[in-house]
Structure formats: C-alpha cells, structure tokens
Write a structure and sequence with these properties.
single chain, 176 residues, mainly alpha, two-stranded antiparallel sheet, 2 strands
Amino acid sequence: MESICPGCGASFPKGDFAPNRYGVASPECWQAFNELLAQERMNWGYPEVHRLVVDAYSVQHPQNFELQKSLGISKRFIDASVQSVPVHLIALYLALREKKPLEKISASMDQILSKGATFEPLDSPDNLGEITIADAPDMSDYDTYSAFAWNWAKKAWGAWEHVHPQVKAWIQEYLN
C-alpha cells in the first residue's frame, strides 16, 4: 500500500507514523525527512547544506487549508504553515541568487522575523519540483549528498518562479 504526500507528491510505502503537526506532509514523508536529518547529523554533524535541505523540503510542503482543517490542525499551526514557505523561499533566494554563504542565512531569516514580517498565503505551483525527499541519495558520501541538496534546492526554488519578484521585494523590504 502506498501513501502519496499531499505536499510534495512523493510516494512512500504506507507506514504507521505520527502526522506532521502542520498537516502539510504525509506521515510517511515527514518520517523520511526526519530520518534524513538524523542520518545527516550522524554522518556529518551539522553540514553546511543542511540549510538547503530544510528550505527545499519546507517550500515543497505549503499550506493546504482544506486538508489542514479536515485533519483538525490548530489555527496556530495553519498560520505557521502560511509563514513557512515565504521565509524558506527567502532563504533559497539568498543561497541561490545572492550566493550568500549558507551559514549566514539563518541570521538573515532571524532579522526578517525580528522585524515582525508577516506574509500572506502564496498560491502554490502545480508542480513543487522534480526532486523530493524520496530522491535522497545514500548517505555514505558527503559530496553526493551535497550535490543532491544543491540540486533539490534549485528545483524547489524554480517551482516557485511565479513568486520570485515578491521574494525579491521582501528581501529589499526586510533586509535592506
């Protein structure tokens, strides 16, 4: 039996996992993400490309009001899911367009949030990118993992092309 993630669309064998508290990923997809992060941590501590992995995964799991309400997700977590995608798109912009060092992006995200930035829901693209968590490589080689993370980030960022001008405007508003 298969489980299709309502966010990224990846397919996973059906399991018995706890749901994502935001209700935007299937329990199986959320489990795969957590397992990837655990493997990443065990193999390399906190590698630079962790930033890209978190951002790519996050923008592939946007708010889904109908689904979230049907799952009984609290308003607090629905509101957080609305804010998540813009913040992670900003991080991807900083990494991919401005070539900002990955280790410095979290500070930029903190700066934006400390200014009280709030974002309206974005219209999700039909396709959230050709690469998902389900495509993660074997975790034994860092160079392969790093290349995967960069490629995943590029594909996830590219899927949101229709909002790239808005992301740039947010950066100009909150970081300049």
